[in-house]
Amino acid sequence: MSAQKRPLSPHLQIYSKQITSVMSILHRITGIILAIGSLGLLWILVALSLGEAAFSTTQACLSSSFGRFVLLAFSACLMYHFFNGIRHLLWDAGKGFAIPDVYRSGYAVIALTVLCTAGIWWLALQGGAA
Question: What pLDDT does residue 129 have?
Fold first, then answer.
């Protein structure tokens, strides 16, 4: 039997990335990060229930440079997942499917993510919380 000549699908090296595919992948990744990050919230709540010594250790860990980076990344993931989720809700309602609207809403999600994450951290650092 001779092998049939079939067209090959483009592989990742030649496939051009589009904003829709990148944002879809990021939405899934941020969802996973938020699910794992909920364990961090559980850690904070358990430390709080164990008393002042356990909570001060947790607070010291989260106040370190690495802890602040983790909190920054978590808050950025939360904002991105939130705004992209609203975008998906609009799509579920049948709005924003035109290609210019898809790109516009994608860039709006990115801009809102950056602005809200920066605003959260500005407020947190102004109040001396972090």
Answer: 55
Task: Give the residue with greater pLDDT, 1 vs 117.
Answer: 117
Beta carbons of 40 and 74 less than 8 angstroms apart: yes
Distance between CA atoms of 69 and 63, rounded to whole angstroms?
A: 9
Q: How far apart are CA 15 and CA 17, in angstroms?
A: 6
Residue 2 is which amino acid? S
CATH number, domain of 71, equals 1.20.1300.10
Average pLDDT over residues 32-37: 96
Over residues 53-80, the pLDDT tens digits come to: 999 999 999 999 999 999 999 999 999 9
Residue 70 lies in a domain: yes
